[in-house]
Automatic annotation (TrEMBL):
Residues 1-24, 623-645 are annotated as: Disordered. It comes from Streptomyces pathocidini. This is Acyl-CoA dehydrogenase family protein. GO terms for molecular function: oxidoreductase activity. Residues 61-166 form the Acyl-CoA dehydrogenase/oxidase N-terminal domain. It comes from the Bacteria. Keywords: FAD, Flavoprotein, Oxidoreductase.
Length: 645
């Protein structure tokens, strides 16, 4: 049996149906970002800025102090980079510190930190070593603890959470060699057998998988008598018979990442280890990621802070043409971008995290926007730092040290951050995921109207429903507070930059964004989902508007509490002015672009029309298939699983 024949064959429509069924389709709580995409600027949902409980702050700050001391005295980031491995003694030290249980309830041995302080801890640890940040994040944000917290039984929590809080490392296994963001083609199976399931399949890019003790595995349960079947989540002991780590993967960045290929061959998993009902695996994974996605932008905040520190120190010392390079506009504009964007990213992450802690808003779109925006902006800031450093930015830290200069790992940061635009949802997938949520209101009232498979009777009913919705909604997009000069006046205190003008811009632009979305749906109807370039720009505009809103609200919070308020207003003003330029450009590209021409060129490329353009090169790639064989069966390589001692 080949890898291809072992995999379910599904149509594009069937794949979409699987993804759609896994979505949380109800909105039981308000959502600032959802309202924003609908043209309703609900500032009241985020302002005044939500505040943490005093006891949560005390415990969080106490842990951050311990973690900082640990990172400064016991973590050698350069050693981890050179040896491509986090030393066992460092991981054991993190266990002793309680870092594995930051988000686990104290009654199970964890620290019970809030999302806000969990993210601050990840940002801190990630600057000491990005590999440590990734280890802790994969363990708690998407590993076993979070799905158990949300969907586990009491017995499962009592059995596993104490281990996960102090001793056991966890990993999340969904991706397969031929399955990424299209889980409908998942090939790993879990066949019911008495009071257990028998697991067979191969999982790729299992972060922490090389050293993990407990795994959360997504597998397809065949439908049978007494079994609903479908993609299902299981907790699997990594030491179980038949579990083999066949390879430890190596990457351009995050060299200390313990990421591998894991094979399951006739692995018996007790039915008691199933998380939730059969068929709920994807919904569990997506719900887990609603807050889990905040870990990546949190670490991007830490990276931005480090970029700012190095840019400030270096550009004040390095002189060209008689003055520090920071005083030259070409370099100064890059520093201003790093400073303003770091402030904005921290505003976005802290706001979304505090809303997650309060649990009074639905933050699925906010968390996704934070991940998308943080990963993109984080890479841009790292790239600008490399440019500010010039040749030294391209030179490795070890090389700099060898010739007597400060070992600044700027090029490493650029390599380490690059993965954030890919894993836990690539930028392209995040665009589509957020776009689907952003147009949810439209599809709920007009879905049947634009569905080619629906009957005329269904379309007539949908038309009447849509007519009523748009009759009420469209008039509200004509005018709003953004057109009144005095709106949001509390954001223009005496002696500070005027942020109210930016909030009025957000309000006006949100209505414009909603009108653009409505026009596009009217124009393309059922073909809307194929207009990925358009949808991506819609989402990017929404991300900028969300970041502007969070930034202004954070600046006002800092001003009202007397904590660097004037400087915060300056940074917020700078960021909003930069963001407005990006928004205007994105709006221009909504309707003036090369999307149609690009599709023609792609057809030509795939059809071989431009192979002559590839002449004159040597391809250094090795031999082998594009996608490795993932046929279920016994292991073919030694087990490289490495428990921490």
């Amino acid at each position: 049996m080949t890898a291809t024949s072992a995999r379910p064959t599904v149509s594009e429509r069937e794949a979409r149906q699987v993804a759609e069924a896994a979505r949380e389709q109800d909105w039981r709580k308000p959502s600032f970002a959802k309202e924003l995409f609908l043209g309703r600027f609900r500032l009241d949902l985020i302002h005044p800025h939500p505040m943490p409980d005093g006891e949560d702050v005390r415990r969080g700050e106490e842990f951050l102090t311990k973690l900082r001391d640990f990172c400064e005295t016991r973590v050698d980031g350069a050693l981890i980079e050179r040896e491509a491995r986090i030393p066992d003694e460092v991981i054991n030290g993190l266990k002793e510190l309680g870092a594995l249980g930051m988000k686990i309830d104290p009654k199970y041995g964890g620290l019970g930190l809030t999302q806000v302080y969990y993210n601050k801890a990840l940002a801190l640890a990630g600057t000491a070593s990005p590999a440590i940040g990734a280890l802790l994040s994969a363990h708690q944000s998407i590993g076993v603890p979070q799905p158990l917290k949300l969907f586990g039984t009491q017995a499962q929590k009592e059995a596993f959470l104490p281990r996960l809080a102090r001793t056991d490392i966890s990993a999340f296994l969904l991706t397969e060699p031929d399955v990424g963001s299209d889980p409908a083609r998942l090939a790993t199976t879990a066949v019911p057998d008495g009071d257990a399931y028998v697991l067979d399949g191969v999982k790729l890019w299992t972060t922490n998988g090389v050293i993990a003790d407990l795994l959360v595995v997504m597998a397809r349960v065949p439908a049978s008598e007494g079994h609903k079947g479908g993609i299902t989540a299981f907790v699997v002991e990594a030491s179980s018979d038949g579990v083999t780590v066949e390879n430890r993967n190596a990457f351009m960045g995050l060299r200390g990442l313990e990421n591998g290929v894991t094979r399951f061959h006739r692995v018996r998993v007790p039915a008691a280890n199933r998380i939730g009902p059969e068929g709920a695996g994807l919904k569990i994974a997506l719900t887990t990621l609603n807050t889990g996605r905040l870990s990546l932008p949190a670490m991007c905040v830490g990276s931005g802070k480090w970029c700012l520190k190095i840019a400030r120190e270096w550009s004040g010392v390095r002189e060209q043409w008689g003055r520090p390079i920071a005083r030259h506009e070409a370099v100064g504009s890059k520093i201003a971008f790093i400073a303003a964007t770091t402030f904005a990213l921290e505003a976005v992450v802290d706001l979304a995290s505090q809303m997650a802690d309060e649990d009074r808003n639905d933050i699925r779109i906010e968390a996704a926007l934070a991940k998308l925006y943080g990963s993109e902006m984080g890479c841009l800031m790292a790239d600008e730092l490399v440019q500010i450093r010039g040749g030294r930015g391209f030179e490795t830290a070890d090389s700099l040290a060898a010739r007597g200069e400060r070992a600044v790992p700027a090029e490493q940061l650029l390599r380490d951050l690059r993965i954030n635009r890919i894993f836990e949802g690539s930028t392209e997938i995040m665009h589509l995921l957020i776009a689907r949520e952003a147009v949810d209101a439209h599809l709920s009232v007009a879905g049947d109207l634009i569905d080619p498979d629906k009957s005329l009777q269904d379309k007539a009913r949908a038309g009447a429903k849509a007519g009523g919705f748009y009759a009420r909604w469209l008039p509200k997009l004509v005018a709003g507070p953004g057109q009144l000069p005095g709106s949001y006046g509390e954001f223009h205190p005496t002696g500070h930059p005027d942020l109210s003008t930016h909030l009025r811009f957000v309000e006006r632009t949100a209505r414009k964004l909603a009108r653009s979305t409505f026009y596009a749906m009217s124009r393309w109807q059922g073909r809307m989902e194929t207009k990925q370039g358009f949808l991506g720009r819609i989402v990017d505009i929404g991300a900028e508007l969300f970041a502007m809103s969070a930034t202004c609200v954070r600046a006002e919070l800092l001003r009202s509490t007397g904590d660097h308020g004037r400087e915060a207003y300056q940074l917020a003003d700078a960021f909003c002015r930069q963001a407005r330029i990006r928004v205007e450009e994105l709006f221009g590209r909504l309707w003036t672009n090369t999307d149609e021409l690009d599709r023609k060129v792609v057809s030509g490329v795939l059809g071989g029309a431009y192979t002559w353009l590839e002449d004159g090169i040597v391809d250094p790639s090795g031999d082998g298939p594009w996608i490795a064989d993932a046929t279920p069966g016994p292991p073919t390589k030694p087990n490289t699983h490495r428990p921490i001692r």
